[in-house]
C-alpha cells in the first residue's frame, strides 16, 4: 500500500495556474516511489474560470478533488477547510501561484520520513517582493518572533508538510481570525526546516494588498502575543515609581524640611509631578483590567489545554 499524501491548495482566481501546478506536482510524484497523492483544491469563492478548470481536470481523470467555499473567506479559512477535509497520512499546504515550488515536495517528505511531524518551507528570497514590502514583512516576522509565545524561524512560510497527528490536533482549534502558520507553530511537535527560493507568481497578481496584510498581521500579533495587551501595565509601573519617588522627595525636601538643598521646585513643577503620578496610576489600573481581559480572551479562544505528542504503552 502506498503512503497517501494530500496536497491542499487554496485557490482564489487562479485559473491560469492550477493546471500547471497539478502538472508539476504530478511530475514530482511520478519520480517518487511508494507514495500516492491527491490534490485538494479549496476554491475560495473564485470569480474566474478556476472552478471549471479544476472540474475539467477531475473529469479527465486527474487525482484532484475540490471543495468550493460559498464566498471568498480568505486564505487562512481556505487552508483550514482544506486541512479539515484532507485524508492523507501527511498533508502538504501549498500556494496555487507556483511561488511554492512543487520540486521541494520530496525534501519535505524525506524530513517527514526521518521523523519530523511538521516540515516547514523556509523562503530564502522572494522575487515578487519590492523593497518596501520586504522591509515590512521582515519587520513583521521579527516582531512576531520577539513578541509571540511560540518560537518561529525567520522566513518560515505556509509551505509545509503536516503529519496526520498534527492535522488532527489542528482540527481542534475553534478560533476565528486565525493565522494558520501561527497555530501550527503553537502546536509544537517535532519540526524540521527545508529552505527554498520562492519563484515568481506564475500568472495573476498577489491578492494580499497592504491593507489586508496589516490587518492580518495585527490580528496575528494579538492572537499570538500578550505584549500589546500588557503595554499599559508595562508603561504604568515605571512611570508611577518614577513620579512617586520624585513627589516623595519634593514633599520631604521642600515642604517638610524647608528646602535645605535649595532645589526650589516651582508650583507648576509640583503639579507636573502629580499629574505624571496620577497618569501612572491610571495606566496601572488599565493594565490590571487587561489581565482580566487576557483571561477572558484565553477562555473564549479556547485552545486545547495540552497537546499529546505520542502515547506510549
Ligand atoms: N488565496 C485564497 N484566498 C484569498 C487570497 C488568496 O485562497 O482571499 C490563495 C491564492 O489563490 C494563493 C495563496 O492564497 O494560492 C496565496 O495568495 P497570494 O499569492 O495572493 O499571496 P502572497 O503570495 O502574496 O502571499
Ligand atoms: Mg503568491
Task: Tell me the number of strands.
Answer: 7
Ranges where pLDDT stays below 50 over 5 or more residues in a row are none
Percent of sequence in beta strands: 15-25%
Radius of gyration: 26 Å
Please give a structural write-up.
This protein is α/β, with parallel strands linked by helices and 313 residues long. The protein has helices spanning 18-30, 50-59, 75-85, 105-113, 131-147, 164-170, 180-187, 210-224, 227-256, 267-301, and strands at residues 3-11, 35-43, 64-68, 90-93, 118-123, 156-163, 191-196. Helix 1 links the parallel strand 1 (3-11) and strand 2 (35-43). Helix 5 packs parallel to helix 8 (210-224). The mean pLDDT is 88. Uridine-5'-diphosphate (UDP) binds at residues 10-12, 14, 44, 72, 74-75, 78, 95-97, 99, 201, 206-208. The site of uridine-5'-diphosphate (UDP) has 17 residues, from strand 1 and helix 3.
Amino acid at each position: 500500500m502506498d503512503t497517501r499524501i494530500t496536497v491542499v491548495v487554496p485557490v482564489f482566481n487562479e485559473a491560469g495556474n492550477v493546471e500547471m501546478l497539478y502538472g508539476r506536482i504530478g511530475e514530482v510524484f511520478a519520480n517518487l516511489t511508494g507514495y500516492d497523492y491527491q490534490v485538494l483544491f479549496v476554491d475560495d469563492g473564485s470569480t474566474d474560470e478556476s472552478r471549471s478548470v479544476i472540474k475539467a481536470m477531475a473529469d479527465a481523470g486527474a487525482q484532484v478533488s475540490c471543495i468550493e467555499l460559498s464566498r471568498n473567506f480568505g486564505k487562512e479559512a481556505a487552508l483550514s477547510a482544506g486541512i479539515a477535509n484532507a485524508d492523507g497520512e501527511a498533508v502538504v499546504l501549498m500556494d496555487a501561484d507556483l511561488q511554492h515550488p512543487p520540486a521541494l515536495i520530496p525534501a519535505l517528505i524525506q524530513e517527514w520520513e526521518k521523523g519530523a511531524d511538521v516540515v516547514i518551507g523556509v523562503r530564502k528570497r522572494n522575487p515578487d517582493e519590492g523593497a518596501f514590502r520586504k522591509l515590512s514583512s521582515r519587520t513583521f516576522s521579527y516582531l512576531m518572533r520577539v513578541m509571540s509565545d511560540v518560537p518561529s524561524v525567520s522566513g518560515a512560510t505556509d509551505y509545509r508538510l503536516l503529519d496526520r497527528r498534527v492535522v488532527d490536533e489542528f482540527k481542534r482549534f475553534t478560533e476565528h481570525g486565525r493565522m494558520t502558520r501561527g497555530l501550527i507553530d503553537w502546536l509544537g511537535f517535532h519540526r524540521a526546516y527545508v529552505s527554498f527560493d520562492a519563484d515568481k507568481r506564475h500568472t495573476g497578481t498577489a491578492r494580499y494588498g497592504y491593507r489586508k496584510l496589516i490587518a492580518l498581521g495585527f490580528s496575528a500579533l494579538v492572537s499570538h502575543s500578550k505584549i500589546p495587551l500588557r503595554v499599559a501595565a508595562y508603561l504604568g509601573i515605571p512611570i508611577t515609581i518614577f513620579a512617586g519617588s520624585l513627589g516623595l522627595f519634593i514633599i520631604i525636601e521642600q515642604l517638610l524640611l524647608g528646602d535645605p538643598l535649595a532645589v526650589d521646585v516651582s508650583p507648576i513643577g509640583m503639579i507636573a509631578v502629580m499629574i505624571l503620578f496620577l497618569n501612572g496610576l491610571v495606566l496601572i489600573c488599565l493594565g490590571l483590567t487587561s489581565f482580566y481581559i487576557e483571561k477572558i480572551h484565553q477562555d473564549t479562544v479556547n485552545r486545547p489545554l495540552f497537546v499529546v505528542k505520542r502515547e506510549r504503552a
